[in-house]
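USER: Please consider what follows.
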Amino acid sequence: MEAVLDWERDIQKTDPKHEILKELDDKDSCYAILSHHWGMEVSYEEMTGLMKMGEEERKEVRECYSYQKIIKSCEQAKKDSYKWLWVDTCCIDKQSSSELSEAINLMYQWH
């Protein structure tokens, strides 16, 4: 969450190797959850690929409602003293059928 906010503040100067999406396998960590609505949402591929995109494509993603919703959610989670934020639309690599299947099976437990 902090990484996303730092990244958004200065996206042009962020190290592209900076870890934005991190797998958290810690049973003691508390995190906020942002669930999606049906429609156009920022994907895992878009979030992890922002630094590799051309300027116009990156601008298009960053200006869309769903990306701004993630940024605002990070800000709110930070205000509420959470260190982590789970966003189901961009925290699951849907190109990996095994990851998607595992995520669907664990969704109830996560929420």
Q: What stands out?
A: The mean pLDDT is 76. The chain is about 45% helix and 5% strand. The CA atoms of residues 1 and 74 lie 6 Å apart.
